[in-house]
Amino acid sequence: MSLIDHLEKAYYRYRPFIPSRLLYHPQYFLVLELQAQRVAEGGSGAGLLQVRKELLRGILQQCVRHVPFYRAEVKLSEAELANEDPYALLQRFPLLDKSVVMSRQAEFRNERYSLRRLHYATSGGSTGEGIGLWRNKRLADIERGFFAAEWGQFGFSFDKSQYLRIGADARAKADEPPVRVNGNRLMLSPYHVNGRHKAAILAALRSFRPQFIHAYPSVAADLANLIEDEELGFDVRAVLLASEPATAGQLADVARVFKCPISVNYGLTERTNIAFARYSGGEDLSFQFDALYGVNENRLIDGRAEIVGTSLWNDVTPLVRYCTKDFGAIDELGLCTRIEGRSQEFLTDRFGGRIPGLSIVIDEVTWDFVRLYQVRQRRAGAITIAVVPRGEGLTAEQRQFVLDAQIKRWGTFFDVDLELVEDIPQGKNGKRKLVQIDLAP
Fold first, then answer.
1. CATH architecture of residue range(s) 346-437
2. pLDDT tens-digit profile of 316-355?
3. What distance in Å separates the CA atoms of residue 160 and residue 55, rounded to the nearest whole number?
């Protein structure tokens, strides 16, 4: 175990005993205060509307002053930025999509921030067209504040509650144990939720007795199906789902086994929109978009309402009027009765287990020479990473880098191959699929 691993383990062991004011940036607590104020005012107080207005004004000012892309594309005077209605000013910004951001990444970073103090987060998303953003601890804490406010309604606390965590941070290799305890979290590898590890998983659950489950929807459903006929010996207060789409079937499985409230999050690596839904049965989820997190817009494409967002907090890599390629009509109160466009596919590993396809992403530096990628599976236990180069092709060193990184991460689950392609075609919905499965019957 490395020094970093030891420090992380010590942090989570002692975190429940550390005052929250020492853990989080002051704006984390500002988010909690604003959310409490919204509840007290019934959601439509004049004070909150003014706060939202000034947050937007501040982001637009940062963009025009300190972000090269907007400084070149949007011509606004200091007088306009200071005095005009920021919602009117917002309409003078161009609509933005992922391809523009990734082809001109450096131009979207606020020049006031040093790279040495920032963290780069990247994701392939559901389309294989990656996105990368710089963030800092302040933005991470603000993000957590919105989750804490929503999930705190169930009594959940990230640093105080005993909870089961099934996500990327709990990953383990195929030959490693499926579970480990990390402070107030029981970490369960999302790739180990299958019959081979059932006994170890059940033993850990019964010993740890988590109050909450924080997981990907797909693996929460896998866990529910795995333990459906078992007596756990404890009650779960709520299941908190995030990071990928949730299907009606998955939610029904989770509800049937755990018999507790289920909260589903909609969000993006781009951090432009956030919404939550409570599952109450049925096929569709009604998501409530948070107007304190971002400005939520729709644009019509072939009669469908695409979700467009502007973060009110992200001044490090601000994305203004970002087109998400997700679809759902958002009403004037922020309610969206159905979100379309996001999908999840499952790969079959060499043991017969299911691996969420969205979990296979390429590394940050790869986006310098790769424009698109797709994970393809034609036989169980093997995957091919199809990549579209940014230029004429890839050097031998670049090909080996991409392949070695995936073998290191996934070699215990799959045979991994690399394929260069000219393009990855779009589907009827205008989106490219990250995962293409053509398994023989």
1. 2-Layer Sandwich (3.30)
2. 999 999 998 888 999 999 999 888 765 556 788 998 887 8
3. 30
